[in-house]
Amino acid sequence: MTEKLFINNSYITEFTADIINVIEDDSKFMIELDKTCFYPESGGQPSDIGFIDNCSIFDVQYKDEKIYHYSKEKPESTLDVQCRINWDSRFDLMQQHSGQHILSSSFEKLFDANTIGFHLSEESVTIDLDKKLDAFELEKAEKLSNEIVFKNLPIIIHYPDETMLNQMPLRKPTKVFKDIRIIEVENFDFSPCGGTHVKNTGEIGLIKIKKFENHKDGIRLEFTCGMRALKDYQLKNNLVNKIAVDMSVSSDEVENSYEKLKEDMNLLVQEIKDLRQQLIEYKINGLKENAEIHSNIKLIKYEFTDIDMKSLKTISSTIVNEPDFITLFSLVNDDVKLLFARSKNVDVNMKDIIKEPLELINGRGGGSPFAAQGGGNKINNASLALETAYKHINSLLK
Question: What fold is seen in the domain 291-397?
């Protein structure tokens, strides 16, 4: 069985080991060592990455009670291989995992909210709580967590016997009593855990909750620690400063200026909607006044270039809601769109009318006897398609 060097010392970064087995599996190699400081993925924590000699290790997994180091290269030798983990990645994961213990304990102490889910990746860290909390309560837990960080408390590894274990105020119960590993944040948190952790809480640097959302009967929150928290702050600070410069205000005034800008924007959006409606009504009146009358049916043929499809449908439906109308509309910009419709009392099948025009524009579409639409890419035939539909209608109304 592989000796786990990471269990008692998370700060080992280089070691020498012997390879005791190599398994080729689907163009990758599973390397088993006699000892390792590579942490295998488990308990919500990703694996370490690094090198075994010149073999790049991209994943480490438990399988059949063994630890396998995954590489795309086959090792050249098996004895006294030089191994090293990626320390930046390891220390980042240590900061996040230790921070999670403190944050989870803060929620449990302040609000009796238990952590029922934990996920740690290279991009984010989340925990699921079994109770719904608001932003103010999250800030209180965040504040307590950072107070623990700033106290620089030792983080201690215990291997208690059953008697000692029963005396420990475990945050979460355990069903295992033999060879159990307990991580203690001095007099603050006691949790069964096999992961890697920093020696002192001060090494976590900072714990910052980024966002939260309702999840089942509780909430899921995303947080960040250490260098990740610094990078997140740098990103957001740069963004706030950029916005402040663009708005010609100080960074402290960005929020109020944003709210004012949002209010002005809403007013402008409503004004645009009102003007668009007025324009549509004006267009409808003009089209109706210029309609051609064929056998008491008012026929409107028109090619649009300056409106969107939503407005086109509004114009068409508004007109044909009145009796005795047929509308033959096209919308030409990057392609051609056809929209043919009729009033309920007009006996013309618009689905039949649109077939030949669609072929002319290399288009596809369909509809019903009352309305049909489609589009194609032959813009040069847009006017011909509309004229073809117009002639077809005329022949039916004679």
Answer: Diaminopimelate Epimerase; Chain A, domain 1 (3.10.310)
